[in-house]
């Protein structure tokens, strides 16, 4: 235990490790663990009935649409893009920038976590709300600007997303939707480092879920997406389906639908889990049969 205690003490004394290296490690672990598990789920048949489909695409099975996407942008290329986003020089620079910011904002740190569970929850929720607010505008500006849309369109080339397509993005896009919102939230909330690490890992893991195409009540329960104001996976999936263009897009938020509602960009359209789509189609077919009998 002594080496761990010494490492912990040394880590707390070094702002470069505490606010620079730590958040980068949290982002890498959070994303790759979540994306790998979700890809395994997609490779099985366990979640087939929970995969999002769209009536506008004739309820084509999602795996068929994903296969078409992988023909255009191979899976290995997407994984390499994610690795470059998280392990490349841009994320290292992001870590250094956050360290400099927090060295000024919270120079003296002696504990990993707040003293009470309530303080932990307050800091985590505040980070989530402020971070998603920053992400909303970092995402929206890329649809409103012709120049930034050229960069963001790399990500939107994937019209049927999957977990490892999440971070197949341009470095500027990654900064506007990731690094800057994280730094903004950390500056506003000034959390304990352990809370910040958990928030970053959870936020990026949630991003992978939002790109999985899985609309599962169980996963929504486990990831707290059943809570008020929280955005389900279908919320961001609809953004990829209906907003592959600049200007007048919708569903810019990721963790909450609150900001889209507040700023008038909430889209009422969304896909349905395959099982729900089949039930709706069967009900519609039943209504047509009844109507034809009456005629």
Topology (elements, then pairings):
Blueprint: H1 2-13, H2 15-43, E1 52-53, H3 62-72, H4 75-87, H5 89-105, H6 117-144, H7 146-156, H8 171-189, H9 193-210, H10 217-222, H11 233-242, H12 258-262, E2 272-273, H13 274-294
Antiparallel strand pairs: 1-2
Helix pairs in contact: 2-5, 2-9, 4-5, 5-8, 6-7, 6-8, 6-9
| Sheet with the most strands: spatial strand order | 1-2
SS strand fraction: under 5%
Radius of gyration: 21 Å
- In terms of structural class, how would the helical and strand content be classed? mainly alpha
Question: What's the helix count?
Answer: 13
* Pattern of helices and strands: HHEHHHHHHHHHHEH
Oligomer: single chain
The gross shape turns out to be globular
Instruction: Please outline the major beta sheet.
Output: 2 strands, antiparallel
Mean pLDDT: 88
Unreliable stretches, pLDDT < 50, 5 or more residues?
A: 277-295
Termini separation: 81 Å
Helix content: 55-70%
* Total DSSP E strands: 2
Features:
295 residues; 13 helices; mainly alpha
Structural summary, described in words:
It contains 13 helices and two strands, in the order H-H-E-H-H-H-H-H-H-H-H-H-H-E-H. Helix 4 (75-87) packs parallel to helix 5 (89-105). It is 68% helix and 1% strand. The protein is globular. The chain has a two-stranded antiparallel sheet. Mean pLDDT is 88; it is low at 277-295. The chain is mainly alpha-helical and 295 residues long.
């Amino acid at each position: 235990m002594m080496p761990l205690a010494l490492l912990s003490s040394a880590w707390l004394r070094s702002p470069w490790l505490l606010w620079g290296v730590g958040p980068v490690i949290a982002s890498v672990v959070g994303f790759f663990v979540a994306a790998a598990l979700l890809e395994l789920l997609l490779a099985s048949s366990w979640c087939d009935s929970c995969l999002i489909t769209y009536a506008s695409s004739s309820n084509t099975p999602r795996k068929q649409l994903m296969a078409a996407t992988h023909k255009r942008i191979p899976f290995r290329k997407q994984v390499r893009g994610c690795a470059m986003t998280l392990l490349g020089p841009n994320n290292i620079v992001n870590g250094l920038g956050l360290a400099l910011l927090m060295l000024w904002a919270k120079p003296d740190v002696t504990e990993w976590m707040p003293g009470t569970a309530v303080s932990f929850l307050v800091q985590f929720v505040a980070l989530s709300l402020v971070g998603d607010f920053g992400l909303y505008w970092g995402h929206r500006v890329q649809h409103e600007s012709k120049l930034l849309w050229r960069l963001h369109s790399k990500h939107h080339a994937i019209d049927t997303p999957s977990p490892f397509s999440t971070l197949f993005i341009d470095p500027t896009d990654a900064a506007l939707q990731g690094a800057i919102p994280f730094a903004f939230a950390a500056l506003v909330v000034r959390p304990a480092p352990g809370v910040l690490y958990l928030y970053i890992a959870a936020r990026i893991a949630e991003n992978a879920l939002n790109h999985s195409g899985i609309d599962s009540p169980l996963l929504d329960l486990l990831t707290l997406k059943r809570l008020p104001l929280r955005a389900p996976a279908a919320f961001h999936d609809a953004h990829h389906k209906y907003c592959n263009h600049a200007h007048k897009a919708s569903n810019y938020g990721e963790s909450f639908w609150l900001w889209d509602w507040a700023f008038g960009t909430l889209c009422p359209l969304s896909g349905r889990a395959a099982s729900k789509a089949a039930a709706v189609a069967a009900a519609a077919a039943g209504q047509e049969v009844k109507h034809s009998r009456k005629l």
